[in-house]
Design brief:
Strand order of the largest sheet: 1-7-6-5-4-2-3
Strand content: 5-15%
Structural class: alpha/beta
Bound molecules: pyridoxal-5'-phosphate
Largest sheet: 7 strands, mixed
Length: about 475
C-alpha cells in the first residue's frame, strides 16, 4: 500500500497570531525609536570584513520554524554590525539619504497593505496618490503644469525610461523590430564628462550601446560646454548617425555642477533632440526660491528626474520622473495581455504602462506622508541649513593653510583636498587617500572621494535630516588632526 501524502499540520496559525504580532512589533518599534534617536552611537561605516555577515548565519534555510526572538537576536548580533549607517548624521559620503521617522512609519503601513499598484484597480489609492504627490512635488519645484510625474525605484531606472521614451518618439518601429530589425543609423546620446554613469547604463540596457554615449567636455566649473556639444551633434549628423537626446545635469555627482540647461534646451530645439534633465540630487533645491535660478531652463525639458530619496528625506527607493508627454513613454512600454485588461479604459492610469516593471510598490504613500509632514516650509528650513553648513565648511577650508576648495559649492556638497605648500600633486593624492581612510576608520564620520582634473579629491556631502553643525565641526576636526598626523 502506498504511503498517505503528508497532511498539513492542524492547529498552527497560518501567519503570526495577532497577539504575537502586537508583542513583537512593539519590540521592533521600540528598537527603531531608540535607533533613530541614537544612530550616531554606531560607527557610520561598517567595520565588517567581506563574508563576515554571511558566515555568521546558517548557510541553509531552517527546516523548523524559528521563533521571532531568535531571528531578532540574529538581526542585532550579526546583521547590524554589517550595516553602514546611512541614517547617521555624520554620513557625508556620496549623496546622503535619510529614512525620516515619518517615512519609516509610511513604509510600515505600506508593508502591511502590501498592495501591488500595477493597475489602477489593483489599488486605486496607490495610483491616485502617486499622481497627486507628484503634482505636489511639481508645484513645490515650480515646474510648468505641462509635466506629469510618476515614480520609479531609482534615478537610473527613471533615466532609462526617459531615454526609452526618447527613442520611441524618434523611432516607434524599434519597439516592434528590436535592435536587429532597426534600419536607422546608430542613435547618439550626449551628456557631460561629469554626468552620472546611469546614462551609460541606460544606453547599454536599451541596446543603444555605450560607444554611442558622447561625453562632452566641461569648463573650469565642470559644466557642459555647449559649443562642444554643438560640434559633436554636427559631427554625428555629418557622419550619418542619429542624434537622439541630451542629458543635462543639475547637480553632478562629483561636484554638483550645473550644466547650462537653458542653452542646452535651445540647442535641443534647434536639432529636434529630446532633453532629459538629471536633477536626481539637486532638484530638491528648487523648493528654495533663492536657488531656483540654478534650475533655469529645466522647464523646457522633455523629462526630468529628481530623487525624493536623496535630499527630501523619503526612505529609499523613491525617484520622481516628470514627463512632458507621458503618452510617448506609455506607448514605448505598454503591453496588455488579456489577463490585465480592465474596463476603466482611458479614465484611469495604469502605472504598469510607464516602465519595464509590472508589479509596483506603494511608494507614493511614503512620498505623500513625508511631503505632508515637512511641508514646503519644513523643507526650505532644512535645505537652507544644509546649504549654510556646506558654506561654513568651505569657509573653514579657505581659512586654513594647506586646505583647498576644489570646486564651487552651489548646493550642500564640498570638494576639497589637503595639499601643503610645495607638496608634489601625486604625493598629495596619496596623502588624501590616507586621510580619507583614517577619518572613515574612526567611525565618527564617513566621507567619500572623487577625481577632478586627474587629482584625488575628498567630498563632504550634507543631506541627512538629522545633521547638525556639531557633526560637520567634528568631521572638520578629524580631518585636520588626521592630516597633521599623516603629513
Ligand atoms: C546626478 C545623479 N544622477 C543619477 C544618480 C543615480 O541615482 P540612483 O541611485 O537613484 O539610480 C545619482 C546617484 O547618486 C546621481 O548623483
Amino acid at each position: 500500500m502506498e504511503d498517505a501524502p503528508p497532511q498539513p499540520s492542524p492547529g498552527i496559525p497560518l501567519d503570526m497570531s495577532a497577539e504575537d504580532f502586537a508583542h513583537h512589533f512593539t519590540a521592533v518599534t521600540e528598537w527603531i525609536t531608540r535607533y533613530l534617536a541614537q544612530a550616531e552611537l554606531y560607527p557610520v561605516l561598517s567595520r565588517c570584513h567581506p563574508g563576515e555577515v554571511a558566515s555568521g548565519l546558517p548557510d541553509e534555510a531552517p527546516d523548523e520554524p524559528q521563533d521571532f526572538e531568535s531571528i531578532l537576536d540574529s538581526f542585532r548580533r550579526v546583521i547590524l554590525p554589517g550595516i553602514t549607517h546611512w541614517n547617521h548624521p555624520a554620513f557625508f559620503a556620496y549623496f546622503g539619504i535619510t529614512g525620516a521617522a515619518v517615512g519609516v512609519m509610511a513604509e510600515a503601513l505600506a508593508a502591511a497593505l502590501n498592495v501591488n499598484a500595477m493597475l489602477w484597480r489593483t489599488s486605486p489609492a496607490a495610483t491616485e496618490l502617486e499622481e497627486l504627490s507628484l503634482q505636489w512635488l511639481r508645484q513645490m519645484f515650480g515646474l510648468p503644469d505641462a509635466f506629469r510625474g510618476h515614480l520609479q525605484d531609482t534615478a537610473s531606472t527613471s533615466t532609462m525610461v526617459a531615454l526609452a521614451g526618447a527613442r520611441h518618439a524618434r523611432d516607434p518601429d524599434s519597439r516592434r523590430l528590436g535592435l536587429a530589425g532597426r534600419q536607422l543609423a546608430p542613435l547618439r546620446l550626449y551628456c557631460s564628462a561629469e554626468a552620472h554613469s546611469s546614462v551609460d547604463r541606460a544606453a547599454l540596457t536599451l541596446g543603444i550601446g555605450t560607444d554611442n554615449v558622447r561625453r562632452i567636455e566641461t569648463d573650469h566649473r565642470f559644466r557642459m560646454k555647449v559649443d562642444a556639444l554643438d560640434v559633436a551633434v554636427q559631427e554625428d549628423l555629418d557622419a550619418g548617425a542619429t542624434p537622439l537626446c541630451v542629458v543635462a545635469t543639475i547637480g553632478t555627482t562629483s561636484t554638483t555642477s550645473v550644466d547650462p540647461v537653458a542653452e542646452v534646451a535651445a540647442l535641443c530645439r534647434r536639432y529636434d533632440l529630446w532633453l532629459h534633465v538629471d536633477a536626481a540630487y539637486a532638484g530638491a533645491a528648487a523648493v528654495l526660491p533663492e536657488m531656483r535660478h540654478l534650475m533655469n531652463g529645466w522647464g523646457e525639458a522633455d523629462s526630468i528626474v529628481v530623487n525624493p530619496h536623496k535630499w527630501m528625506f523619503v526612505p529609499i527607493d523613491c525617484s520622481a520622473l516628470f514627463l512632458r508627454d507621458p503618452a510617448t513613454v506609455s506607448r514605448a512600454f505598454s503591453v496588455v495581455p488579456e489577463y490585465l485588461r480592465t474596463p476603466e479604459g482611458g479614465a484611469a492610469t495604469n502605472l504598469m504602462d510607464y516602465g519595464p516593471a509590472l508589479g509596483r510598490r506603494f511608494r507614493s504613500l511614503k512620498l505623500w506622508m513625508t511631503l505632508a509632514y515637512f511641508g514646503r516650509e519644513g523643507y526650505q528650513d532644512r535645505l537652507r541649513r544644509h546649504v549654510q553648513l556646506a558654506r561654513d565648511f568651505a569657509g573653514w577650508l579657505g581659512a586654513e593653510a594647506g586646505w583647498h576648495l576644489m570646486a564651487p559649492v552651489p548646493f550642500s556638497t564640498v570638494c576639497f583636498r589637503y595639499s601643503p605648500e610645495g607638496m608634489d600633486p601625486s604625493a598629495a593624492d596619496r596623502l588624501n587617500e590616507r586621510i580619507l581612510e583614517k577619518v572613515n576608520a574612526t567611525g565618527e564620520a564617513f566621507l567619500s572621494a572623487t577625481r577632478l582634473n586627474g587629482r584625488y579629491v575628498l567630498r563632504l556631502a550634507i543631506g541627512n535630516v538629522r545633521t547638525e553643525s556639531r557633526h560637520v565641526e567634528r568631521a572638520w576636526h578629524l580631518l585636520r588632526s588626521v592630516a597633521r598626523d599623516e603629513s
